[in-house]
Design goal:
By secondary structure, the chain is α/β, with parallel strands linked by helices. It has one domain: 3-Layer(aba) Sandwich (Rossmann fold). The chain has an eight-stranded mixed β-sheet, with helices on both faces. Helix 1 crosses helix 7 and helix 3 crosses helix 4. The N terminus is likely disordered.
Protein backbone atom coordinates (compact mmCIF):
# COMPACT_ATOMS: atom_id res chain seq x y z
CA UNK A 1 0.00 0.00 0.00
CA UNK A 2 1.34 3.42 -0.91
CA UNK A 3 1.98 5.68 2.07
CA UNK A 4 2.28 9.45 1.99
CA UNK A 5 5.12 11.18 3.80
CA UNK A 6 5.11 14.93 4.21
CA UNK A 7 8.06 16.38 2.25
CA UNK A 8 11.10 18.29 3.49
CA UNK A 9 11.67 16.56 6.81
CA UNK A 10 13.51 13.72 8.56
CA UNK A 11 11.96 10.34 9.33
CA UNK A 12 12.87 7.06 10.92
CA UNK A 13 11.27 4.49 8.63
CA UNK A 14 10.52 0.77 8.70
CA UNK A 15 10.86 -0.94 5.33
CA UNK A 16 9.17 -4.31 4.74
CA UNK A 17 11.36 -6.93 3.08
CA UNK A 18 9.69 -10.34 2.99
CA UNK A 19 9.42 -11.55 6.58
CA UNK A 20 12.07 -9.02 7.67
CA UNK A 21 11.71 -5.34 8.50
CA UNK A 22 14.61 -3.01 7.77
CA UNK A 23 15.25 0.18 9.73
CA UNK A 24 16.14 3.34 7.88
CA UNK A 25 16.67 7.06 8.29
CA UNK A 26 15.24 9.31 5.57
CA UNK A 27 15.92 12.99 4.93
CA UNK A 28 14.08 14.88 2.19
CA UNK A 29 15.33 18.46 1.61
CA UNK A 30 13.15 21.02 -0.12
CA UNK A 31 13.17 20.73 -3.92
CA UNK A 32 15.25 17.56 -3.86
CA UNK A 33 17.29 16.86 -6.97
CA UNK A 34 17.41 13.09 -6.41
CA UNK A 35 17.55 10.35 -3.79
CA UNK A 36 20.72 8.58 -2.60
CA UNK A 37 20.29 5.24 -0.83
CA UNK A 38 23.22 4.21 1.39
CA UNK A 39 24.44 0.62 1.72
CA UNK A 40 26.97 0.31 4.54
CA UNK A 41 29.51 -2.40 5.20
CA UNK A 42 29.61 -5.07 7.87
CA UNK A 43 29.74 -3.79 11.44
CA UNK A 44 28.26 -0.43 10.50
CA UNK A 45 24.68 0.84 10.52
CA UNK A 46 22.39 3.67 9.47
CA UNK A 47 23.77 5.52 12.52
CA UNK A 48 27.36 5.43 11.24
CA UNK A 49 28.95 8.86 11.86
CA UNK A 50 30.84 8.54 8.57
CA UNK A 51 27.76 7.85 6.46
CA UNK A 52 25.74 10.45 8.39
CA UNK A 53 28.45 12.99 7.63
CA UNK A 54 28.36 12.23 3.90
CA UNK A 55 24.56 12.22 3.92
CA UNK A 56 24.53 15.63 5.62
CA UNK A 57 26.68 17.07 2.83
CA UNK A 58 24.40 15.55 0.19
CA UNK A 59 21.37 17.02 1.94
CA UNK A 60 22.98 20.46 1.79
CA UNK A 61 23.35 19.96 -1.94
CA UNK A 62 19.60 19.31 -2.22
CA UNK A 63 19.75 15.51 -2.40
CA UNK A 64 17.43 13.31 -0.36
CA UNK A 65 19.12 10.43 1.50
CA UNK A 66 18.00 7.08 2.85
CA UNK A 67 20.39 5.30 5.20
CA UNK A 68 19.12 1.76 5.61
CA UNK A 69 20.25 -1.22 7.67
CA UNK A 70 20.35 -4.24 5.38
CA UNK A 71 20.27 -6.58 8.39
CA UNK A 72 17.57 -6.73 11.05
CA UNK A 73 18.63 -5.85 14.63
CA UNK A 74 18.65 -9.56 15.51
CA UNK A 75 20.78 -10.44 12.48
CA UNK A 76 23.19 -7.60 13.22
CA UNK A 77 23.59 -8.79 16.82
CA UNK A 78 24.37 -12.32 15.68
CA UNK A 79 26.66 -11.02 12.95
CA UNK A 80 28.79 -9.23 15.52
CA UNK A 81 29.96 -12.59 16.89
CA UNK A 82 29.47 -15.07 14.04
CA UNK A 83 30.24 -12.97 10.93
CA UNK A 84 27.95 -15.40 9.11
CA UNK A 85 26.35 -12.77 6.88
CA UNK A 86 29.32 -10.48 6.36
CA UNK A 87 29.98 -11.59 2.79
CA UNK A 88 26.45 -12.65 1.86
CA UNK A 89 26.27 -10.21 -1.04
CA UNK A 90 23.10 -11.77 -2.56
CA UNK A 91 21.23 -11.22 0.73
CA UNK A 92 22.38 -7.61 0.99
CA UNK A 93 21.63 -7.02 -2.67
CA UNK A 94 18.09 -8.35 -2.39
CA UNK A 95 17.39 -6.14 0.59
CA UNK A 96 18.82 -3.06 -1.09
CA UNK A 97 16.54 -3.77 -4.05
CA UNK A 98 13.58 -4.08 -1.65
CA UNK A 99 14.44 -0.73 -0.06
CA UNK A 100 14.65 0.81 -3.51
CA UNK A 101 11.25 -0.52 -4.55
CA UNK A 102 9.82 0.83 -1.28
CA UNK A 103 11.23 4.28 -2.03
CA UNK A 104 9.87 4.24 -5.56
CA UNK A 105 6.35 3.75 -4.17
CA UNK A 106 6.59 6.60 -1.65
CA UNK A 107 4.65 9.62 -2.87
CA UNK A 108 7.29 12.08 -1.68
CA UNK A 109 10.12 10.15 -3.38
CA UNK A 110 8.56 8.67 -6.50
CA UNK A 111 9.54 11.57 -8.77
CA UNK A 112 13.22 11.39 -7.78
CA UNK A 113 15.97 9.63 -9.69
CA UNK A 114 17.86 7.24 -7.41
CA UNK A 115 21.55 6.63 -6.82
CA UNK A 116 23.46 4.29 -4.52
CA UNK A 117 26.29 5.13 -2.12
CA UNK A 118 27.99 1.91 -1.05
CA UNK A 119 30.79 1.51 1.48
CA UNK A 120 33.03 -1.55 1.93
CA UNK A 121 30.97 -4.72 1.32
CA UNK A 122 27.92 -2.49 0.85
CA UNK A 123 29.48 -1.26 -2.37
CA UNK A 124 29.32 -4.78 -3.84
CA UNK A 125 25.62 -4.91 -2.98
CA UNK A 126 25.12 -1.47 -4.53
CA UNK A 127 26.76 -2.54 -7.78
CA UNK A 128 24.76 -5.76 -7.97
CA UNK A 129 21.49 -4.00 -7.05
CA UNK A 130 22.08 -1.36 -9.73
CA UNK A 131 22.13 -4.18 -12.27
CA UNK A 132 18.90 -5.63 -10.87
CA UNK A 133 17.26 -2.17 -10.83
CA UNK A 134 18.14 -0.62 -14.21
CA UNK A 135 16.47 2.67 -13.22
CA UNK A 136 19.39 3.47 -10.90
CA UNK A 137 21.02 6.61 -12.27
CA UNK A 138 24.38 6.67 -10.45
CA UNK A 139 26.60 4.65 -8.10
CA UNK A 140 29.36 5.82 -5.76
CA UNK A 141 31.63 3.36 -3.95
CA UNK A 142 33.65 4.47 -0.88
CA UNK A 143 36.44 2.07 0.01
CA UNK A 144 34.29 -0.53 -1.70
CA UNK A 145 34.77 -4.27 -2.01
CA UNK A 146 33.90 -4.09 -5.68
CA UNK A 147 35.73 -7.38 -6.14
CA UNK A 148 32.79 -9.11 -4.43
CA UNK A 149 30.28 -7.89 -7.01
CA UNK A 150 31.14 -10.71 -9.42
CA UNK A 151 29.85 -10.44 -12.98
CA UNK A 152 27.70 -7.44 -12.06
CA UNK A 153 30.78 -5.29 -12.65
CA UNK A 154 30.63 -6.05 -16.37
CA UNK A 155 26.85 -5.61 -16.53
CA UNK A 156 26.61 -2.29 -14.68
CA UNK A 157 25.20 0.56 -16.81
CA UNK A 158 24.76 3.34 -14.22
CA UNK A 159 27.54 5.98 -14.14
CA UNK A 160 29.90 4.81 -11.41
CA UNK A 161 32.47 6.60 -9.26
CA UNK A 162 34.99 4.48 -7.34
CA UNK A 163 36.69 6.23 -4.41
CA UNK A 164 39.52 4.62 -2.46
CA UNK A 165 41.96 5.81 0.16
CA UNK A 166 45.54 6.16 -1.05
CA UNK A 167 46.86 3.91 1.73
CA UNK A 168 44.13 1.26 1.52
CA UNK A 169 46.29 -0.97 -0.65
CA UNK A 170 44.08 -4.06 -1.12
CA UNK A 171 41.03 -1.93 -1.92
CA UNK A 172 43.03 0.23 -4.33
CA UNK A 173 44.01 -2.89 -6.28
CA UNK A 174 40.49 -4.34 -6.26
CA UNK A 175 39.02 -1.03 -7.38
CA UNK A 176 41.59 -0.64 -10.13
CA UNK A 177 40.75 -4.10 -11.44
CA UNK A 178 37.02 -3.32 -11.23
CA UNK A 179 37.51 -0.01 -13.03
CA UNK A 180 39.13 -1.81 -15.93
CA UNK A 181 36.13 -4.15 -16.18
CA UNK A 182 33.46 -1.45 -16.06
CA UNK A 183 31.89 -0.52 -19.41
CA UNK A 184 29.69 2.32 -18.08
CA UNK A 185 30.55 5.99 -17.58
CA UNK A 186 33.17 5.74 -14.84
CA UNK A 187 35.79 7.46 -12.72
CA UNK A 188 38.30 6.16 -10.17
CA UNK A 189 39.65 8.62 -7.60
CA UNK A 190 42.26 8.12 -4.89
CA UNK A 191 41.97 10.35 -1.83
CA UNK A 192 45.44 11.47 -0.80
CA UNK A 193 46.53 10.37 2.66
CA UNK A 194 43.38 8.32 3.38
CA UNK A 195 43.06 4.84 4.86
CA UNK A 196 40.12 2.46 4.54
CA UNK A 197 37.90 4.39 6.96
CA UNK A 198 38.90 7.86 5.71
CA UNK A 199 39.59 8.79 9.33
CA UNK A 200 42.36 11.29 8.55
CA UNK A 201 41.44 15.00 8.79
CA UNK A 202 39.72 16.27 5.66
CA UNK A 203 39.56 12.93 3.84
CA UNK A 204 35.91 12.12 4.54
CA UNK A 205 34.99 15.66 3.57
CA UNK A 206 36.72 15.01 0.25
CA UNK A 207 34.64 11.85 -0.21
CA UNK A 208 31.46 13.84 0.45
CA UNK A 209 32.52 16.50 -2.05
CA UNK A 210 33.31 13.95 -4.77
CA UNK A 211 30.10 12.01 -4.15
CA UNK A 212 28.02 15.17 -4.08
CA UNK A 213 29.37 16.36 -7.41
CA UNK A 214 28.80 12.93 -8.99
CA UNK A 215 25.21 12.64 -7.76
CA UNK A 216 24.34 16.24 -8.64
CA UNK A 217 25.56 15.64 -12.16
CA UNK A 218 23.83 12.32 -12.78
CA UNK A 219 20.72 12.50 -10.60
CA UNK A 220 19.69 16.08 -11.28
CA UNK A 221 19.12 15.62 -15.01
CA UNK A 222 17.49 12.23 -14.50
CA UNK A 223 15.08 13.66 -11.90
CA UNK A 224 14.01 16.44 -14.24
CA UNK A 225 13.18 13.84 -16.88
CA UNK A 226 10.93 12.05 -14.38
CA UNK A 227 9.01 15.18 -13.42
CA UNK A 228 5.61 15.70 -15.09
CA UNK A 229 5.47 18.32 -17.80
Amino acid sequence: MKTSLSPYAEYDVAIPCGIATLNGHLNIPARSKGLVIFAHGSGSSRNSPRNRSVAWELNHRGLATLLVDLLTPEEAENEATSAALRFDIPLHTGRLVAATRWAQKEESLSRLAIGYFGASTGAAAAIAAAVDVPEISAVVSRGGRSDLAGNAIRQLKAPTLLIAGEHDEPVVKWNHDSYERLSCTKEFTLVTGADHLFSEPGTLEKVAELAGEWFEKHLGDATRKLEPN
